Amino acid sequence: MSLTINDLGKAVLETHYAVRGPIVARAQELERAGKKIIYCNIGNPQALGQKPIAYVRQVLALAEWPELAALAPEAFPADVLEAARAIGANAAGGVGAYSESKGLRFVRQAVARFIAERDSGDGVEVTADPEHIFLTDGASKGVQSALRLLIASSDDGIMVPVPQYPLYSATITLYGGVQVGYYLDEAAGWSLSRKMLDKALLEARAKGTNVKAICVINPGNPTGAVLSRGNIEMVIRFAKEHGLSILADEVYQTNTYRPGERFVSFARILTELGEKEVSLFSFHSCSKGYLGECGQRGGYMEVRNVPGEVLAQITKLQSIALCANLPGQVLVYCLVNPPRPGQPSYERYRAEREGVIESLRRRADLLARGLNDIPGYSCQPITGAMYAFPTITLPEGRTDDEYCLALLESTGICVVPGSGFGQEPGKAHFRTTILPPIDELSEVVGKIKEFHLSWR
């Protein structure tokens, strides 16, 4: 007899990932039937028109085909050629060969320098150890490794924000752990509340859950909010008091839109506080920010305040998959080691980078204002990341799943119901990206407004 669904594991059957769920499947059906679909369901910048950074693609091209430098030397600035030579000298066999399990050491060294430069200043010196850095196939693989490490039994719980990115709920379910949700304060710009953290922890422990860690997404997905320094300090103190590890998802660290705002990492605050007891797993990615290289699958995980025997176990987990893909490792190198002022590629790189971030800032402002102009909508300011998560007022008895499906069928706009991320009982939301081009985003807002005023 052939395999049936009854033969599958319970954890697989109970795992859900709303970002690519039934509404997206329906969108693909409609698209195949000829309907124009605007995919606002996922943070996929280049699919919605964001152009690749030239420096990144030039370095990657030479890493993939070193002979290209001799065939077309005039096509590549000197700093691109230098970066490609460094990759060739440190990647034995090129990008078609395995690296060590943690990833190419010279890339991990570059990541360590990047973290130190990003976080040091104002009298604080932050250092990073390349041996505590693991190159991963996007940040998602790093998150999954950390959760695999932490979840040892069906009683082990991981605190996650509500709303949260479904990677966390899906992976916790798949690994047989317990999701312990803590609500974000929407009225206060989706900030964290110590009261809500304490409440979630106490309720979980009362049910016999062994809470092991707290996940924090900053800037927020799906909320589009950026945490204050005070919120980060509070989370670290909370984690220390209760013996929790911290998983800091910081993949949107370049996506901050308040003028003059500088991203503050958990590693920076951990160093400021002189904290040596709280274990920290932090994640970054080439998929977001101004690169938008989602398909290249490049990322890293940095680990702090864990003993050597734990690092060895992480390395073992990495080695099961042999290593992160090499083109993705090259992308991480470009992310953390971009052109510097005075180098031939710098001015073009700077213009492209700033153009992307400024365009995203304008779109974030346009989308928030446009959604707030719709009767029955309330959208917090989008100060970071790539999303809006507005509250929507629905007719009695209707759900946000029904609303989003009807929106898709009527307008071709594909968004994700708030239920896929978690939300307070009695409330309804959806997540949409800010990524469509400005003119198309204005069209999206107009279509949503027209649909909302007519839907019953």
Task: Please state how the strands of the largest beta sheet are arranged side by side.
Answer: 2-8-7-6-5-3-4
N to C succession of SSEs: HHEHHHHEHEHEHEHEHEEHHHEEEHEEEH
Low-confidence stretches: none
Give the biggest sheet.
7 strands, mixed
Mean pLDDT: 91
Distance between the termini: 47 Å
Classified by CATH, the class of the largest domain is Alpha Beta
Coarse shape: globular
Number of domains: 2
* CATH architecture name of the largest domain: 3-Layer(aba) Sandwich
Structural class assignment: alpha/beta
Number of helices: 16
The percentage helix is: 40-55%
Residue share in β-strands? 5-15%
CATH superfamily descriptor of the largest domain = Type I PLP-dependent aspartate aminotransferase-like (Major domain)
Q: Write down how many β-strands occur, each being a DSSP E stretch of 2 or more residues.
A: 14
Radius of gyration: 22 Å
